[in-house]
Specification:
Blueprint lengths: L3 E3 L13 E4 L7 H17 L3 E7 L2 H5 L11 H9 L5 E6 L2 H4 L3 H12 L4 E5 L12 H11 L2 E5 L12 H9 L3 H8 L4 E5 L6 H5 L4 E4 L9 E8 L5 E9 L10 E6 L10 E12 L12 H19 L2
Parallel strand pairs: 1-4, 2-3, 2-5, 3-4, 5-6
Antiparallel strand pairs: 7-12, 8-11, 9-10, 9-12, 10-11
Amino acid sequence: MALDICHNWRNLAPEARGAAVAYGNFDGVHLGHQRVIADAADAAYRLGAPLGVVSLEPHPQTLFNPGGPPFRLTKPDQMARAVASLAVERLYLLPFGHQMAVLTDREFVEEILVKGLGVRHVAVGFDVTFGKDRSGDPAAMTRYGAEFGFSVSVAPLVAAMDGLKISSSAFRSELGGGRPEVAARLLGRPFAIEGVVEKGQQLGRKLGFPTANVPLGEYVAPKFGVYATRTRLKDGRHLPGVANIGVNPTTGLVEPRLEVWIFDFDEDIYGEVIETELLAFLRPEETFRDAGGGFDVAAMVRQIHRDADQARGILGA
């Protein structure tokens, strides 16, 4: 069944209401989020209701901390694919702005979840907050469920099999520390950067390793450096490669971006959307200068080919 994505809670058609929903800011859709969604799925089965996910877009942090460092783990399209893989039927990406931000926790539940979405069950995590000043918590949601006639489940803190605490902040810490394999265990899949391929200096193409350049934008910055990668193209192909994430200190500082060399590939994909998974961290970003302080092209090329050989060995490519 195709995922139905709704960007509003007002004046919904009857068939768009009445779901058992998981509520939260599911940026990343990590294993903890997946537990909340699984609780909603159990309720949906029990009630004979559709399974839904309710999240806010843009992320509230964008409104409350404008100008702060990028922090996103997924773009909305990635979130949609992740929840669809969990058999979610409806994704409510509700527009978050000043009008919603001033609602009390009770007003949020009554106006949006009850009158708007007509929820039959709400699954939340142990640390969920909602409403103005984040005054609502799981206990409050349980009380409102009793008042307004929907059931509530609260998922406990989830730990990975090796005991790692699963949270968005823990994921960001592992990614920033250059440990994408650990971050992937928290997420349940590799972290991936999705975006439109932009034209760069095309220096790589001239040197024999054409790269596809994608700005990081709102994504949390992984540790700058070189990664073994796998890239999904618009036609569904998944191709191995090696990528640098950083600011290009050697050839001229740029905004943080991904530059991925897709192995054995030489097609024009400028303007296309690609998604690149970070599978293993190889080394930090370097500056290649000769003794006179100039750009040491030969040293950079040698290192990139060493990186490619290492990535091919990891990926079996």
